[in-house]
Design goal:
heterodimer; A: alpha/beta; Dna Ligase, domain 1; D-amino Acid Aminotransferase, Chain A, domain 1; Glucose Oxidase, domain 1; eight-stranded mixed sheet; five-stranded antiparallel sheet; globular; B: mainly alpha; Arc Repressor Mutant, subunit A; 2 domains; three-stranded antiparallel sheet; two-stranded antiparallel ribbon
Chain lengths: 590, 201
Amino acid sequence: MTRWTMKLDGADLPDKALIGGKGWSVARMASLGLTVPPAFVITTKACAAYQDGKTFPDGLQAEIAEGISWLEEETGRTYGAGPSPLLVSVRSGAAISMPGMMDTVLNMGITPVTETALATECDDPGFARDTHRRFHELYAHIVLKTDAGNLSNDDTAEDWAAAIRGASGSELPADPVERLHAAVRAVFESWDSRRAKRYRKHHGIPDDLGTAVVVQAMVFGNMGSTSGTGVMFSRNPVDGDPAPYGEFLANAQGEDVVSGKFTPRPLDTMKDVLPDAHAQLLKAARRLEIENGDVQDIEFTVQDGTLYLLQSRAAKRAPEAALKIACDMLDEGAIDEVTALSRITPDQVRSLLAPRLPERATETAEVLARGEAASPGIGIGLVVTDSDDAERSANNGAAVILARETTSPDDLHGMIAAMAVITERGGSTSHAAVVSRALGVPCVTGCGDGSVTALKGQTVTVDGANGLILKGALPVQEPDETALAGLVKLTRIAERMSPVKVILPENAPSNALDLNRIDGGSEIQRLPDLLKGAQIAGGGALSDDKGIAIAVQAGVTAIVGRPRLPILLAAIRAGAVTEDRETVAVSATD
Amino acid sequence: MMKDPQLALHGLAIKKHGSAAEVAAITGLDATATEQHLNAAVDSGRAMKSGDKYMLKPAAQVALKMGYGRDFAGQRSDEALQKAYDDFERVNEQLKSLITEWQTIEVGGKSMPNDHSDAEHDQKIIDRLGDLHERAEPILDRLAAGLPRLGVWKDLLLAALEKAEDGDIAWVSDATCISYHTAWFEMHEDLIRVLGRERLE
């Protein structure tokens, strides 16, 4: 008889096609000897069998019950009952990740009874209440695909269920086992969702592969003084310093860190309260960095002194860090030259070389207003308060800064014309912020009523990265790519690997094609035609990575432009297959 | 009820600066008819044309807004429609945060622009955008029940979403095409004008 489920205890590493990417990641972490919250997986075969009659195949229910019993044994907790209730997460995971699949449902197993038990156990009734409410919201959102509005902690579970019934027309089962079955069914159904089907068709993925379902015990960082939660990076993601970096919050859950209710403390503080878990964490981070060949971003929870790794993935990093980490790991012999070049993007190099205010410039300049740093970059110009004015002045060659109370779609033309956008109201999700980022225009928002529109007619310097509006036109510096050691080193390597040469504009030969001087030269669609027969070209659409890729394909041998490294990197990327970055990712939080 | 020539001007007001085809696309009007309406507005001094793009003159803007109370009296007194708009506002907040997540990433507690070098990360957000779209669909249907032409937004949103899902990420939030965010924002503007609401920031 077919087995429909498997324990993810690391004893073996079954094929991704059978247990899906997420299940595989949990199993891989466990097989490296790292502690992950216990989990079992319902295989892709069960999903394929479900699609035949849209019912669970024979034996699946019994196996789910077996799996839950195993989780109960491993954790010493009970599903759907006190005094130590077991809560689980349910997540979908196909061998290939695709859109439209069911998102993660957390806190499965919480009921009025287990809420009370959890409240006693962690001595925090508010947390138990939040956990219970959050389950209802997630169930409505993810399993029933409905928006039941914001539920209130003052209402009862019956009230929440009624709100969900009102919004969706569907019933939330009262029995936690039935809820689990409903979530598994929802994962199987999501395999056949509009988006998943379209994606498979578009990418030629067979419809009968099926998705797996990972059921994993949840762990709690708020179980007292020997518990806690945090995030760590195996190297500093802001400046690239090779020392571990992170944050820790004792006796707290991940949500507490995200919500800003508590301020996390530097990772070092964990050493004082939980020295063993701290030492294990550093060791695990080292191991994962070596296994995955890249800087890791690790989420973890300590429950009653035991360290659990929830997720580990390649860390996102600031441009400065990307450069330092690529060079350091190359020097250490951890990665090869090709990999080092793939660890920094052309845009990150451009950002390192982007014009900036000299250090200390903001200390001496007069700050006219400050607000939220909504979109980085330096913009200098004359303040105007009307989008039509902005467009008109810009068309006449003037550099303008658009200052508005707030912006709306009516202001788009002004925002496109401006060197920077500054507003009095709104935060980092306001229209001004969102559209400025989409346009790549520096933006500072929420400077306060009457602050920036009053600057009309003045010349100002906007520092989008620091949220400052400074008096006058300040001098800006353009970093020199030949003065930064890391860039020089990567440029030398890139020159050897790039399918094209880069020629600086002042050295361009007379037969070079200058797209800036050709009508339509900046239109990427016309590029293949314009490049016909050209050996050396630059300007226009070649200032864009996509344009560089087209030039490489068209057989151009040299590109005229500066700075050199972004062009070389874009050309190398155009010729290379994208690196498959297999990460060991397990998450109980997203 | 708004007549077609008025509706063309209303569409132009939302676009601010747009071609007849662009105005037709968001109002559901026929493209040729839209062009005739907009040309008529140019002839009577209510709009200007440069290239193939039209723009409403300030006085016509004011006149249009003043007429809304009459044009949309039925919608403004429609409780179900007003309630649907309140629900829309809630999803609108979720969309704004999602677009911010699309554009910025957190690095060690510091926010910086997403340079879209991590396709997997982008894919996840597009997936969540799809989730959000599915939650928004019933609300969009309720809005279209109160004013059928609003149904065009659902099609524009889905078209943008599918382009993004197929890998053309410009269709998430680029300001220069009818990306998901552009369509959503213009739809929001349309709803605000129809229902006489204020934009919250």
